[in-house]
Design brief:
- This protein is 32% helix and 25% strand.
- With 325 residues, it is an alpha/beta fold.
- It has 2 domains: 151 residues, Medium-chain alcohol dehydrogenases, catalytic domain (Quinone Oxidoreductase, Chain A, domain 1, Alpha-Beta Complex); 143 residues, Rossmann fold.
- The strands form 3 sheets. Strands 3, 4, 5, 6, 7, 14, 15 and 16 form an 8-stranded mixed β-sheet that branches. The chain has a 6-stranded parallel β-sheet with strand order 10-9-8-11-12-13, with helices on both faces. A two-stranded antiparallel ribbon has the order 1-2.
- Strand 12, helix 9 and strand 13 form a beta-alpha-beta unit.
- Helix 2 packs across helix 12.
- The protein starts with a strand and ends with a strand.
C-alpha cells in the first residue's frame, strides 16, 4: 500500500515522502481500517517537526483523524494509532475508540468532525459552561478548530464574535455564522470587542492561538468570564498574569481533549452522540475547504502549518485529482 513516511523531523513538505509499505497489522484490541478520508490537523505538522507532546518512533505516518471502513464494511471515524497514521491507504485504531460516522456527513466531513468538534464541545460546554445569550469570542474563527467553535457556539444560542487574519478569512467566518467578524490585520480587536459589547467584553473566549491573541483575550474577557486555552498555533505560549485574573474576576481554563479518552471515555461517546444529533439537524457541518488526493498530502500539511487554509483540508486516498469544496 502507499503511505506517507517521515524519516527525520522537519517541515512537512521537506520530510514527508510517499512510499510503498506493508499494510499495518492490528495488535491486540485494534482494528484495521481502510482510509476513506483523513483530515489534516495542526498537530500533524507538529509531529513532523518533532514538536508534539507525542513523539512516535521514526519512521512514522502522520494523520491523526480519519473516516475509515472496517473489514466488515462499517463506516467509522477514528484516531489512528501512531506510527500508523491516516495519510495512507490503510491504518489501525483502537477498536474501543472507533465511533460510527454520522450519516448526515460525507467522508471528508465525517473525518473533520472528531478532534476539532470534540475539542470545541468540551471547551464550550464541559469547561466554560457556555449559556444561551452569552457572548463567545473565537480566535482564528475561519480555521479548522475555530470554525467548529463558531458553529457550536451558534448552536448553543450564543452571540459569536470571530477574529481572523485577512479579508478572505473574514468572508469565511461570516458565512459560518459569526455575528461580528474582526480582521486583526486591519482592526483594533480590543476596541472593537468592547464597542460591540457595550464595554462588557466576551463571556467566553476560545483561544487556539496563544501569543498576542491571549493578551487580547485577557483585555476583552468580561467580569466572571472564562478564557479557554486549547492550543498555541502562533508558536508562542503566554505567561498569564494571575493578578490580572484576580482583579477582573475571570477564569483561565485549559482543555486537552485527548485526556478524556483515558480519563473519562464515556464522555467522548456522549459528546459524539451530541455532535451526531447536531449534524443530523444541520446545526453543524464541518467546513471542508479542499479535498486533495493522497499524493497531495505533504503540500497540504505544509499549507495548514503555514496558516494558509480555511476550515479543514481532507486527504482522500481514492481521489485522483482533488477538488475545492
Amino acid at each position: 500500500m502507499q503511505a506517507w513516511q517521515v524519516h527525520r523531523n522537519g517541515e512537512p513538505s521537506e520530510v514527508m515522502t510517499l512510499e510503498d509499505v506493508a499494510r499495518p497489522e492490528p495488535g491486540d484490541g485494534q482494528v484495521l481500517l481502510k482510509v476513506r478520508a483523513a483530515n489534516i490537523n495542526f498537530p500533524d505538522a507538529l509531529l513532523c517537526r518533532g514538536q508534539y507532546q507525542i513523539t512516535p518512533p521514526l519512521p512514522f505516518t502522520p494523520g491523526v483523524e480519519i473516516c475509515g471502513e472496517t473489514e466488515d464494511g462499517r463506516r467509522v471515524i477514528a484516531n489512528p494509532v501512531l506510527p500508523h497514521g491516516g495519510f495512507a491507504e490503510y491504518t489501525v485504531a483502537d477498536a474501543a475508540a472507533v465511533l460510527p460516522a454520522p450519516d448526515a456527513l460525507d467522508d471528508a466531513e465525517a473525518a473533520a468532525l472528531h478532534i476539532g468538534y470534540q475539542t470545541g464541545w468540551f471547551a464550550l460546554h464541559r469547561r466554560a459552561r457556555l449559556e444561551a445569550g452569552e457572548t463567545l469570542l473565537v480566535h482564528a474563527a475561519a480555521g479548522g478548530v475555530g470554525s467548529a467553535a463558531v458553529q457550536l457556539g451558534k448552536a448553543a444560542g450564543a452571540t459569536v464574535i470571530g477574529v481572523v487574519g485577512g479579508a478572505d478569512k473574514a468572508a469565511v467566518a461570516s458565512e459560518l455564522g459569526c455575528d461580528l467578524v474582526i480582521d486583526r490585520r486591519t482592526e483594533d480587536v480590543i476596541a472593537t470587542v468592547k464597542q460591540a459589547t457595550g464595554g462588557r467584553g466576551a463571556d467566553v473566549v476560545y483561544d487556539p492561538v496563544g501569543g498576542a491573541a491571549y493578551a487580547q483575550s485577557a483585555k476583552v474577557v468580561a467580569f466572571e468570564g472564562r478564557i479557554v486555552v486549547v492550543g498555541f498555533a502562533s508558536g508562542s505560549i503566554p505567561s498569564p498574569a494571575l493578578n490580572h485574573a484576580l482583579v477582573k474576576n475571570y477564569s483561565i481554563l485549559g482543555l486537552h481533549w485527548g485526556l478524556y479518552n483515558t480519563k473519562n471515555p464515556k464522555l467522548v461517546q456522549h459528546c459524539h452522540e451530541q455532535l451526531t444529533e447536531l449534524a443530523a439537524r444541520g446545526a453543524i457541518k464541518p467546513l471542508v475547504s479542499e479535498r486533495v488526493p493522497l499524493g497531495g498530502a505533504a503540500d497540504a500539511v505544509q499549507r495548514v502549518a503555514d496558516g494558509l487554509t480555511t476550515g479543514r483540508v481532507a486527504v482522500v486516498p481514492g481521489d485522483t485529482e482533488g477538488e475545492a469544496a
